[in-house]
UniProtKB/TrEMBL annotation:
InterPro entries: ABC1_dom (IPR004147), Kinase-like_dom_sf (IPR011009), Mito_struct-func_regulator (IPR051130), Prot_kinase_dom (IPR000719). PROSITE patterns: PROTEIN_KINASE_DOM. The keyword Glycoprotein does not apply. This is AarF domain-containing kinase. It comes from Fistulifera solaris. Signal peptide: none annotated. Residues 158-541 form the Protein kinase domain. Keywords: Kinase, Transferase. PANTHER family: ABC1 ATYPICAL KINASE-LIKE DOMAIN-CONTAINING PROTEIN, ABC1 FAMILY PROTEIN.
Length: 541
């Protein structure tokens, strides 16, 4: 019956309307949109959660990006920018705490003023992300421990349910080994975090391809680094390698010893370092100095800024800090002597309150020495060892205290983003460091090209400026915000090929300079790395 109808229709002489296209325009558009949507869905992790997170990010980022660009075009006054920063940063913090994941890392970069790229208002608003990231309940952590190392209850005599730190991919708990009584740190990776962070980075990359192309290579390299950052066994081996390198070179720092036998893909057990994050130590220092001066923190900071401006000193030198610390140490010793005499005499009388003693950690920190040490330590890693941490932000640096009357020691943690340089790469970069310190234009351009940088027009001036700003200092920005400077540089001659290994060296350099800016200690990285570079070339060649 059906066949008869088909034949009758085919050979019928009746006039029929022209046949319609198999797919209408609407249907075709729907297929295209669905295909694009599926592609994007897969790009951000292949989960509904990843898609929702991406939409939430764009619904916040795009409107604010347009507003900022509008005020930049209008050249709005500073008062307008301050009000804008206040409102935008507060909303950004709320969105970051809602989404967490990779966006926590972005907020921490703003708090640390990485690359001197963030206004003070943004730094202050994002500061809670340095040490107050919401942690998962301890029951979730124990369930992960049960999966990863079922024998953990036999390994630890106790484990503190309150984390001593939490970050974008996991949280850290202090524990005690049952066998030796030694305090250790247990770092636990959050469940499903790798998939979420990959989706977050891809979302950010797509946004930057339109809004901030200069950041795309760094984000792509960051995603590549996730191959090791989410495997704590690899991080433990990285940590041990860096620890041995630092011990061999007698660097002024400590690196925790990992307990390799007890590390799994999602759990890292390591030596406990007695100290605090550098950012927290610096904040505490300002609060102590303000309290001793009888002022609020704001009043104390403003007074110090006025003093520096009045004295026209660009920064306080190592020698000046040493002299100041010696004076404060004499005051501390005199205070402790008075306290001891008082407590051993009048203090015994009824109703008398004993005087407190002041430990050495109440003394001001030598910011100049601290900055020099941090930069030289990473110069050793990059130029000598060819094995360096590509993420040396203040949250990954500790101040460790091993005695009441001993000076604090730098502690290095978090080795998930470690990069290697070959001998040839190290030698080329050593030559670039020397050329940067000499400000040798032609040599800087030649070595930048040899490193693998390729731009659209290969304009020497643009390659020179990029190398100086990426690896040394910001003196060529002319007072411009580094973000705007890099955008203008890209517009003049877009960098097409970034050598990934050197890209991470540049990122480390910018992070280190972010610490310098935070401590008001401007530095030329090339000047501090030059002696190391010359020694490497002399010994190897």
């Amino acid at each position: 019956m059906v066949a008869k109808r088909i034949i009758a229709r085919r050979f019928s002489t009746e006039k029929r309307e022209p046949s319609q296209p198999y797919f209408s325009k609407t249907t075709t558009a729907a297929f295209v949109l669905c295909g694009a949507g599926y592609y994007y869905y897969d790009l951000v992790g292949g989960t509904v959660e990843g898609l929702v997170r991406s939409i939430q990010f764009y619904s916040f980022a795009i409107p604010w990006y347009v507003v900022y660009r509008y005020h930049l075009f209008r050249q709005s006054p500073q008062e307008t920018w301050d009000a804008l920063d206040q409102k935008a940063s507060q909303q950004a913090l709320e969105k970051i705490l809602q989404l967490q994941g990779f966006y926590i890392k972005c907020g921490q970069m703003a708090a640390a003023n990485i690359g001197d790229a963030f206004p003070v208002i943004w730094q202050e608003t994002m500061h809670p992300l340095q040490d107050q990231v919401p942690a998962l309940p301890f029951s979730v952590i124990t369930s992960i421990l049960d999966e990863e190392m079922p024998q953990w209850r036999d390994l630890f005599a106790q484990i503190d349910p309150v984390p001593i730190g939490s970050a974008s991919i996991g949280q850290v708990h202090k524990a005690v080994l049952k066998s030796t009584g030694e305090p250790v740190v247990v770092k636990v990776c959050y469940p499903h975090v790798e998939r979420l962070l990959r989706g977050d980075v891809r979302t950010m990359t797509l946004f930057c391809q339109v809004a901030q192309p200069v950041h795309v290579p760094a984000l792509q390299e960051m995603e590549h680094q996730f191959q090791t950052e989410f495997d704590y066994r690899q991080e433990a081996m990285n940590m041990e390698t860096v620890r041995q390198n630092m011990l061999k070179a007698n660097m002024p720092c400590v690196v925790p010893k990992p307990l390799l036998a007890h590390c799994t893909k999602r759990v890292l057990v390591m030596e406990y370092l007695p100290g605090e994050k550098l950012a927290a130590a610096l904040k505490r220092e300002v609060e102590q100095q303000a309290s001793m001066a009888g002022k609020s923190v704001k009043e104390y900071v403003q007074e110090q800024e006025r003093y520096v401006e009045k004295s026209k000193i660009p920064f306080v030198s190592n020698r000046q800090y040493s002299y100041w610390i010696q004076m404060e140490d004499m005051k501390r010793r005199w205070h402790n002597l008075r306290a001891r005499l008082y407590n051993m005499s009048v203090g015994w009388l009824p109703g008398q309150v004993w005087m407190n003693y002041r430990d050495r950690n109440t003394l001001p920190l030598n910011h100049a020495q601290l900055v020099d040490d941090v930069i030289r330590i990473h110069g050793q890693q990059v130029l000598v060892d060819g094995f360096f941490n590509g993420d040396p932000h203040p949250g990954n640096i500790l101040l460790c205290y091993y005695g009441k009357n001993e000076a604090p020691v730098l502690g290095l943690i978090d080795f998930g983003q470690v990069k290697r340089l070959s001998k040839e790469q190290r030698h080329l970069f050593c030559r670039l460091v020397i050329a940067l310190d000499d400000d040798n234009f032609s040599e800087i351009v030649r070595l930048t090209q040899s490193a693998g940088y390729q731009s659209g027009n290969m304009i020497p001036e643009c390659l020179y400026k990029y190398a100086v700003v990426a690896y040394d200092e910001e003196r060529l920005t002319g007072g411009k915000h580094i973000q705007l400077f890099m955008e203008e540089l890209q517009a003049a001659d877009q960098i097409i090929t970034f050598p990934k290994d050197y890209l991470m060296v540049g990122r480390a350099s910018i992070l280190l300079r972010g610490l310098c800016h935070a401590l008001h200690q401007p530095r030329s990285v090339a000047k501090l790395w030059r002696p190391i570079a010359e020694r490497v070339l002399e010994e190897d060649l």
